[in-house]
Amino acid sequence: MQHWFFEQDIPERHHWNQAMLLETAQPLDVKVLQEVLQQLMRHHDALRLRFVRETTGWRQFYAEAEETGTGAEEEEAEAGTPLVERVDVSALPRHEQDTVIQDLAASRQGSLNLSEGPLVRLVFFDCGLQPGRLLFTIHHLVVDAVSWRILLEDFQTAYQQRSQGAAIALPAKTTSLQYWSERLSEYAQHPDLEQEMAFWSAPIRTRVRSLPLDYPEGQNRVASLRSVAVTLSADRTQALLHEVPQVARTEVNEVLLTALTQVVTQWSGSPLLLVEQEGHGREPLFDDVDLSRTVGWFTAVYPVVLDVANLDDPGAVVSSVRQQLRRVPHRGIGYGALRYLSQSDQIAHLLRSLPQAEVSFLYLGQLDQAPTDHAFLTMLPDADLPTRSPEGMRKHLFEISAMVQRGQLHVEWRYSANLHRPRTIEMLAERYLEALSRLIDHCRSSEVGDGTPADLSLAGLNMQQLSQVSRLLEEIDTLNLPEEPGI
User: Fold this and answer.
1) Rounded-to-integer distance, Cα 256 and Cα 387, Å
2) What mean pLDDT do residues 52-58 have?
3) Class at the top of the CATH hierarchy for domain 203-358+396-471
């Protein structure tokens, strides 16, 4: 992911963050916050990373722990925005508090520094008698979704320990980011990994067509980013989470992608959808690696071509998309390893030359179950934080993310107003909910649980062969053979 990041044309690389605005159930002590953040940076090596551009490319290194300390308040003031900041908005009415918090949270997004640090900042907004706000801003180069869970758990643990006068004692470290990087580089040179090239460079990918544009001459800039959000009913959401996977023997992500493929292909007039998927990237490739408490950017990003040509029956579409997704080797981690870490220039050039996905899709899961709601911290999902510079260019036409929160599925379509009319995206988002609802209702009312070759260890079976096996088993079942021991 670091190679991917520095390959992009990003005008302000320091402003490419992940941020989280949390509600605090109690006032927070800034001095304790400083101690806690300092300890987190000592404990999690990635938070001390620095990146410097040299003549041969970008070089990363770790700053020493004492270099990342918060230091005295007067030293921080001289250096600029402090590492931990307190903003008192208690004298303002509640609606004005929200405005000030939103404005200041937005302004802090561009305050990180890749070469000199820090890559993480905290801002505590003191709202007086109202619950306060705590802003975490971390550069994406050193954090991902799994890392956030680790950091927020450690933050709560450390804050409670220190505020009660005890020493900070965090759970033991697991494999370092540096060791994982070394092992992944070795993995990228293994001859077995090159066998995945047959999948990643399959001829079907060259048949993918570009998606329609309302404004073909527009520029896909971050500043033109807009979004449309839709919500699935609570009843259908619960069916999607609990009934559909059992009936259709499928995963939630596979059903969501099935509906997306149906809608986009019907709109574009092409039977193929090239979509960029994201996985957590922490695959168990090595026996000597444990990433369960390792902070960093591990995300595996990989393209998948989904083909729904000549498929009208909802059950058949679900089964087909499920099979295509389960053909992806090792949850896609090999794609990035081959493209960015392989020593073969031919492999890297081939993967770069193929058509790139114009659609990205990410299912974030059930956030109500995520460990971001702590004893004194609650995530505020509606916070709109400009985590990227408006001068940058967007990679995709559509960035689609889905999550379950408060018992309902929320789906957000991000697009560029320079390329598409709002009504176009609203139409696609509405059709997506309709397609998803039809799939859910179909799965609830019928049996669509036919297996696919991806579900079995029988190599080489296609859908036609699997159907023949199924029919043979049905015929055997009608023979009424006598039950004998061992049969």
Assistant:
1) 26
2) 93
3) alpha beta
Work out the mean pLDDT of the chain and round it to a whole number: 87
User: Higher model confidence: residue 110 or residue 66?
Assistant: 110
Q: Is the per-residue pLDDT at 461 higher than 80?
A: no
Per-domain residue ranges of the chain:
2-171, 203-358+396-471
Q: Is the pLDDT of residue 77 over 80?
A: no
What pLDDT score does 211 carry?
97
Distances (CA, A) of 43 to 68, 97, 154, 294, 313: 12, 34, 10, 10, 53
**The dihedral sign for the CA sequence 384, 385, 389, 393:** negative
Task: Return left, alpha or beta for 249; rule: phi > 0 is left, psi -120 to 50 is alpha, else beta.
Answer: left
Cα–Cα distances (Å) from 440 to 192, 253, 362, 385, 426, in that order, read 39, 13, 19, 33, 21
Query: Average pLDDT for residues 33-42, to the nearest whole number?
Result: 95
- The rounded distance, in Å, linking the Cα atoms of 456 and 249 is 12
- CB of 17 within 8 A of CB of 387? yes
Would you say 246 and 415 are in contact if contact means Cβ atoms under 8 Å apart? no
Identical fold between 2-171 and 203-358+396-471: yes
Judge contact between 279 and 300, C-beta under 8 A: yes
Supply φ then ψ for residue 123, to 5 degrees. Answer: -130, 125
pLDDT-derived band at 367, boundaries 50, 70, 90: confident
Two tokens at 311?
Answer: 């498929």
CATH class of 2-171: alpha beta
pTM across the whole model: 0.84
Can you count the helices (H) and strands (E) in the chain? 16, 13
Terminal CA-CA length for the chain:
52
**Residue 90, SS3 per DSSP:** coil
pLDDT in tens, 162-219: 999 999 999 999 999 999 999 999 999 999 999 999 999 999 999 999 999 999 999 9
- 81: confidence class by pLDDT, cuts 50, 70, 90: low
Q: Are 234 and 381 in contact (CB under 8 A)?
A: no
Residues 6+ apart with CB under 8 A from 47: 40, 41, 68, 119, 120, 138, 142, 295
Pairwise CA distance, residues 33 & 159, whole Å: 7
3 state SS for 364-418:
EEEHHHCCCCCCCEEECCCCCCCCECCCCECCCCEEEEEEEECCEEEEEEEEECC
CB 86 within 8 A of CB 98: no
State the Cα–Cα distance between residues 28 and 133, nearest whole angstrom: 10
Q: How far apart are CA 97 and CA 94, in angstroms?
A: 5
Tokens of residue 120, six digits: 């993480």
Long-range contacts of 88-97, Cβ-Cβ distance < 8 Å, separation of 24 or more? 88/126, 89/125, 89/126, 89/127, 89/128, 90/126, 90/127, 90/128, 90/129, 90/130, 91/128, 94/127, 94/130, 97/125, 97/127, 97/130
Q: Are the CB atoms for 302 and 276 separated by under 8 Å?
A: yes
